[in-house]
């Protein structure tokens, strides 16, 4: 990994208000349900490359797990489900010539395809601001209509 790329990743973590030790995605099981919580409330739970990779890898494991019957995805913080892709990080990386932009969009679309073709129910608990492809590829939406804004 180049020094420039490390710098961009470090800058992205700083901008998003997260330290490297804070989990941007919380992955858990509750009985037969798998639960994904996007955990970047200061960034309106905007999806970044690290999150896309974690979610994709875990979805593949849960898809093969006979004890997992459905997947629930939600956002933390109460203000947004997901504000889409982290465009700020992608833009800054693109300005510096970093491959983050290409990597992000390639892997986000791979994740979107995995969600769209998932063999188990994939349910989004939408509460607040909602944008982007990951939020549109669900089997079922459960929406809090008092705060919902789908862009």
From TrEMBL:
Catalysed reactions, semicolon-separated: 3-hydroxy-2-methylpropanoyl-CoA + H2O = 3-hydroxy-2-methylpropanoate + CoA + H(+)
SUPFAM superfamilies: ClpP/crotonase
Signal peptide (UniProt feature, chain positions): none
Organism: Aquarana catesbeiana
InterPro entries reported for this sequence: ClpP/crotonase-like_dom_sf, ECH_dom, HIBYL-CoA-H
The organism's place on the tree of life at top rank: Eukaryota
GO biological process, one term: L-valine catabolic process
Enzyme class per UniProt: hydrolase
Compartments reported by the entry: Mitochondrion
CDD domains: crotonase-like (cd06558)
Family: Belongs to the enoyl-CoA hydratase/isomerase family.
Listed GO CC annotations: mitochondrion
Keywords, sorted A to Z: Branched-chain amino acid catabolism, Hydrolase, Mitochondrion
Identification of the protein by name: 3-hydroxyisobutyryl-CoA hydrolase
GO molecular function annotations of the record: 3-hydroxyisobutyryl-CoA hydrolase activity
EC number annotated for this UniProt entry: 3.1.2.4
Pathway(s) it belongs to: Amino-acid degradation; L-valine degradation
General function of this protein: Hydrolyzes 3-hydroxyisobutyryl-CoA (HIBYL-CoA), a saline catabolite. Has high activity toward isobutyryl-CoA. Could be an isobutyryl-CoA dehydrogenase that functions in valine catabolism. Also hydrolyzes 3-hydroxypropanoyl-CoA.
């Amino acid at each position: 990994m180049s020094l420039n790329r490390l710098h961009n990743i470090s800058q992205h973590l700083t901008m998003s208000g997260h330290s490297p030790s804070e989990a941007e995605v919380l992955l858990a099981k509750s009985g037969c349900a798998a639960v994904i919580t996007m955990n970047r409330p200061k960034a309106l739970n905007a999806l970044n490359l690290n999150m896309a990779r974690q979610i994709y890898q875990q979805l593949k494991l849960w898809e093969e797990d006979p004890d997992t019957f459905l997947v629930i995805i939600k956002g933390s913080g109460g203000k947004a489900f997901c504000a889409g892709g982290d465009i700020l990080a992608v833009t800054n990386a693109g300005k510096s010539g970093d491959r983050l932009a290409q990597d992000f969009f390639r892997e986000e679309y791979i994740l979107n395809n995995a969600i769209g073709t998932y063999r188990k129910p994939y349910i989004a608990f939408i509460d607040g601001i909602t944008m982007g492809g990951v939020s549109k590829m669900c089997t079922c939406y459960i929406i809090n209509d008092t705060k919902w804004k789908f862009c």
